[in-house]
Amino acid sequence: MIDWKLILEVIGILLYATFMGFIFMGIERKAMARIQRRVGPPLYQPIIDTLKLLGKKESISHGFIYDFGPVFALGASIAALLFIPIANFQLFSSNADLIVVAYLLEVPMLGIMLGAMSSGNPFSAVGVQRGLLTMVAMQLPYGLALIALIQHWGTFKLSEIVALQGAQGWSVTVPALLIAMIVFDIVFQAMLGLEPFDIITAPAEISMGPMVEYGGKHAAILFTQHAVQIFAETAFFAVLFLGGASNLLELLIKQIAVLFIAIFVASIYPRFTIDQAAKFFWKWPTILGIIAVLLTV
Amino acid sequence: MNEILIILFTPLLAGVLAWAFDFRGVREVIGLIGAAVPLAYLVKLYPAVIEKPVDYALTVGGFTLQFQLGTMSWYFAAVASLVGLAMAFGLVATSRSGYDWLFALMSFTGVLGVFLSQDFIGFFLLWELMTFASFMMVLKRNRHESLKYFVLSVIGAYAMLLAIGILYARTGALDFETIRQALIIDVSLGTIGKGETILLFTLFLTAFGVKAGAVPLHVWAPGAYSETDQSYTAFFSGALSKAGVYGILLIYMLMGYKLYAELGTFHGHLTFAYVIAWIGAITVVVASFLAVLQEDIRKLFAYSSVGQVGYILLAFGVGSPLGFAGGLFHVLSHAIFKGLFWLVTAAIILQTGRTRFRDMGGLAEKMPFTFAMGLIAVLSLAGIPPMAGFASKWLIYEAAIQAHMPLVAGAIFLGSGLAFAYVVRFLYGVWFGQRPSELEDVKEAPLPLLLAMTILAIPNLVFGVAPGVVTGYINRILMGDVVGGDYYRLVTQTGTYNALLVSTALVIGLAIAGLVYLYGAKARRVPVTDTYQSGNPVTEEFNLSIRRNFYRPLAEALEFWLRYSWDRFYERLAKLSEDFADALRQAFYNGNVQSYSWYLAIVLLILALWGVL
Amino acid sequence: MNGQYASLLIALPLLSAFFVPLIKGLGERGIKYYLAVITALQTGIAAWVFQQVYSTGKPIIVMAGGWKPPVGINLYIGHFAALFVLIVAVVSFFTAVFSIWSMKVQPIDKYAMLFLLLMLGATGMIATGDIFNLFVFMEITAISAYALTAYNKTGEAAEASLKYMILGGIGSSFFLIGVALIYGSLGTLNMAQIAQLAGNMNPTVAQVGLALIVFGLAVEAELFPLNAWAPDAYQAAPHAITVMFSAFVVKAGLYATARLLYLMQAVGSWHDVLKLLVAMATLTVVVAEFAALRQKDVKRMIAYSSISQVGMIAFALALGSQAGVDAGVFHMVNHAVVKALLFLGVGYVGIKLGGTAMENFQGLGKRMPLTAFALTIGSLAAVGIPLFNIFWSKVRILIAGVEAGYTWGVALILGASVVEAVYYLRFIHAMWFAGEGERMREGLAISLILLLLAALVIVIGIYPDYIWSLAQKAGSDIFNVGQYIKNVPLMEVGA
After folding, report:
1. DSSP string for residues in B304-337
2. Beta bridge partners of B64
3. CA-based angle C201:C323:B608, to the nearest 5?
4. Which helix (H) or strand (E) holds B110?
5. Local structure of residue B140 (DSSP, 8 states)
6. What is the dihedral of CA A35, A36, A39, A44, to 10 degrees?
7. Which of C205, C392, C408, C428 to mutate to test the interface with B (most CBs of B within 10 A)?
8. What does DSSP assign to residue B533?
């Protein structure tokens, strides 16, 4: 038995998510530009960029893993997306477990790292190192925020978390979870790779970090991956703390709200060095996270 | 002849034979057979075991040794045998001496015996055999590390012996069942007081903590795991450390109720279990941090191993059925992925002769199969769905959070972030980047080693996609429907993980991404030196890969904590006691007959003061 | 055959010792072979006695001149004595064989005499049923031991011997005072009768007497802090003699202590004495282990280890329980085997390579693999690795200790055993994994003895049941005083 409805939904959501993801990237650039009093590119610029990259005549490759890395990253991002309840489209989310999704959202990182490492470029290596250290640093507050959430709602299932929020009010209306959300939002900044935690790619410092060597279709895949990832992560945020959404529009508003907070924070703060980031994450966000989990025990 | 006897002693016998007939070819064949027999018999006994336990008793030294193959011992024994078989294949490639075979297989017997014993004499006896054999494997290569291992093990063993002695004196029994019942009855009788119960608990915890490598008793592990044949380490860290974990379960089985009755609960958690959980959590964090900062491939995996066993302790410490399920599952997954890691390490060291990251790099092209195996291990350890490592970790997460141990669960999050970091370090350091020119002639690992890796790689995939196979069996062990679902789906009260669905989603994702890739323009292969370096041309002369201090910023961030080291603490302690020994000897056996005569006078005086003279 | 032939156990070494001057003409080799033959004969007799006692299950009581005790002096060869007399004889035989090859220092005839007297003394101490006789045999043992310690004629040896003599002399004087007190109070020297009457004694006299006896014997039994003479003596004595010291001379002292202790159970302060002994024994173990830790000389290291093991035996014997005594006896047997093996091996290497310093043992595995193998087995056994004999007795002692309520003592002993593991394992590492060397020829006889002992270690380790049953019988021989009194056919005189 083939569930045609589900297949259509999956295809539809994937197209939508990719498209909106690119638009989010555009919004990011545009908003940033406006804050810095520049004109900035049009919103659809990332799509055109990606198409252009895809159209390149030839791209270089450093071997199988170099090719496999981006493919793996995009594949994992798509997989993660399929488990998040997107508005009224449940996709696979009846089976979605918070921990599983949290992990799936981290897998693309491994793909990028794999590809980057195999390029042999020293900047990539530095990027990889920074990426992983950021992850190590943010993992503790991130985990604590998720734990607080799970403890409060008493379930790991995303669909149930959404349903419970529908019945009892959004997560943010609970004081302890508000703290958790603040923590999560700080971590979120790092997940999106925005200042003050844009240490990984660190433009103008280590070239493009992990992405240095990538061009042509590889870069196009990575761009697409980034688009899907942004969409998935913002949706994840909305689902966890903002009560999910009953339709795509509501979801979109929440996603953009989340995105704008991130952009504003990013445009205010300068970049941390990696050890500063680690020390930062292990101080205030962790303390707040501990308060949150203890409040929800 | 009883099957249990065959399972237990074939490896030992084969080891002795391999040592006696120390010829190339002969010892390998004998050893392989010896290592394969336990697994074969365990498989054969499987239908019988799930019906009812298989028993066997043996009388030695006036003690009756009882062995039993129940559901739990079958599980542990099967895990050990699987790793043991892989180890044997590995040894075919890496070892050239009967000595290695003898002690490797001897420890195999020891480990199996520990899992099958139903009384403390057999348990202790085989525990010591296992310790001793593994010690001999280390002694051959490094005296200092082996002594460190042995001293800590002996402290653990004697702690256990003392505890056994106390239990025997109080209950008059040595077999588990009687002790268990006696301790349950004792809750109302109260012959064993609170103080003594705590003492027993501490002693057992020390004994098992040493073997499991729980912080702060872990200091032996990095050295011992490194300074031996790496094929053997697959067993050492994959199976032997599980003996400690098994011991923790034993504490629950024998003393759980008594400990609960005496120590009560702490914020809704069993106090004693909470202690175990925190030990596990601290072990996870400390060992994982140290693993990230290692510069030697063996040390890295050694610390990682300690950290991963910490997960198991943590899971058992949660104390809920789900916790046990997670811990037991992780016993299997740790054994298979860490065993695989060590075999990969063995292959690398065998083919390159190097152990430090700074001497390696770019080997993925030279040893593609080994690399693929390494990658599977990496994915499993880092807990990437759908690998076996994820399924077990997921259960532990669920258990810890469900039991409302948020801080302990936080340690898991931190630990898995760190795990991610160190496996990537391994990937980068060994397989990628520019290859040192001396490693141009490196070949793929020999066939037996590849076979050994395959033996362990397959379960990583199979149990990853079908974790329900394992949890189904674990439900049998725990005698209840702890983890629901079917072969592909794990369902707990609060969460669900569908491994097949995740795999499907990944396949869909990969297919889409792959299509994009395939329909893109063709890619041209360029060498590793053809890379962007701020405009400088890259040549072979300068190796641009980051070989040393990869995670330097982390070390800087942790500067304060790294000043303290358990290692140094123990070294200092050892030196202090040696100095004390010297001082004692010089003071007492000073060679002066006059003072010797005074000793006599003093004893007479004491006798007089005592009132007996 | 009549049980009275068991008196040959005393008579044979005594007579043959006196015959030594007569056969001096046979030359050096002749005397050495004579020694071997006599000890072999002694072994034969001991084996026969052993077989008799254990098959009938009844002790052999030898009455001198047919006089019934307490008027006559009797030998009491029960389960314990039968077992240990056999061990004494066997070890003596091994050392006699070893001496054939190893003894170079003149005068050999004196050596042979002293050797036989030492054996005689130990046998007598174990077999006698009379407390004054015990003193006499103890003096024979001690004096021949003093002389043998000094036998190598080096300054070191003389000094060690002197220390031994002073401390031993003080000890035996106090022992004698104790005996005199008891005799004065009870009017008997027969051990069975003492046991019978001990309860009626004047409590003060009994207490003082017991304390003095135990004190005197503790010097021989190497209990801390009365054992200061031991390391020096062990090291300075000829290698063969060290084997005997460790394997049975000290055991005779231990046995005597235990025997007299349990005979006088009825004495009021008995439990206090036990406590004191337990404390001393525990300290013996701890101090000796620590003293051995950084020892550069292997022979001395093993001497310390031997002392600590003896402490463990004393601990077990002083527990005052059947289980403790059984375990102690079991440990005595195992210790005799292991220490005989170790001292023989070390002595052999010492002579071959000119010294017993640790450096000489480096690379021994390559130079003298058989000896190194035997030494390794011995060391592992001493550490208490399972499937070697000492493990079983150690476990028994520990369980008995905890049962008797001495958990702290057991904990200390276990802690000290950790130290023991360290130095033995260093030793093993030195033999096998350090240093280089050419293969050397190893003597056949000595290799056979070493391998035999090593095999014994392993056989007992894997199948301890037989020896354990022997030890249990021997243990109850000591512990079960009522049976002891019943076994001795006392004449009804006065009392």
Report:
1. HHHHHHHHHHHHHHH-SHHHHHHHHHHHHHHHHH
2. B59
3. 40
4. helix B98-116
5. T
6. -60
7. C392
8. S
C397 burial class (0-12, 13-18, 19+ CB within 10 angstroms)? buried
Q: What angle do CA C112, C114, C119 make, to 5 degrees?
A: 95
- For B588, the closest of C170, C171, C287 (CB atoms) is C287
Instruction: Using CA atoms of B285, B289, B290, B291 in order, give the dihedral in degrees to the nearest 10.
Output: 100
Tens-digit pLDDT string for chain A (297 aa):
677 888 888 888 889 999 999 999 899 888 888 888 888 888 888 888 888 888 887 788 888 888 888 899 999 998 888 888 887 777 776 767 888 888 888 888 888 888 888 887 788 888 888 888 888 888 889 999 898 888 888 888 888 888 888 888 888 888 888 888 888 888 888 888 777 777 766 666 676 677 777 778 888 888 889 899 989 999 988 888 888 788 888 889 899 998 998 888 888 888 888 888 888 888 888 988 888 888 887
Sequence letter at residue A36:
Q
Number of domains in chain A: 1
Q: Which residues of B545-572 are buried (b: 16+ CB within 10 A; e: fewer)?
A: bbbeebbebbebbbeeeeeeeeeeebee
User: Full-prediction pTM beyond 0.80?
Assistant: yes
The whole-angstrom separation of Cα A190 and Cα B113 is 50
Pairing of strands A59-61, B54-60: unpaired
Which band of pLDDT confidence, cut at 50, 70 and 90, is reported for residue B537? confident
Task: Determine how β-strand B523-525 pairs with β-strand B489-491.
Answer: unpaired
Q: Position of tokens 């907070």?
A: A261
CA distance B479 to B328: 14
List of chains touching B (3+ CB pairs within 8 A):
A, C
Half-sphere exposure of A212 (CA within 13 A, CB side): 30
Task: Please list every residue in chain B whose beta carbon sits closer than 8 Å to the beta carbon of residue C417.
Answer: 154, 158
Q: Domain span at residue A152?
A: 4-296
Question: Dihedral of the CA atoms C338, C344, C347, C349 (nearest 10)?
Answer: -90
Residue with tokens 């207490």: C207
Q: What is the pLDDT of residues B245-304, one digit of tens each?
A: 999 999 888 888 888 888 888 888 888 888 899 999 999 999 998 898 888 889 999 999
Name the residue ranges covered by the structural domains of chain B.
264-483, 565-610
The amino acid that residue C295 corresponds to is Q
User: Is the Cβ pair B597, C422 closer than 8 Å?
Assistant: no
Nearest to A78 among B416, B421, B508 (CB): B508
Q: Which of residues 159-198 of B touch C (CB under 8 A)?
A: 159, 161-162, 164-166, 168-169
Extract the tokens encoding B439. 């490693």
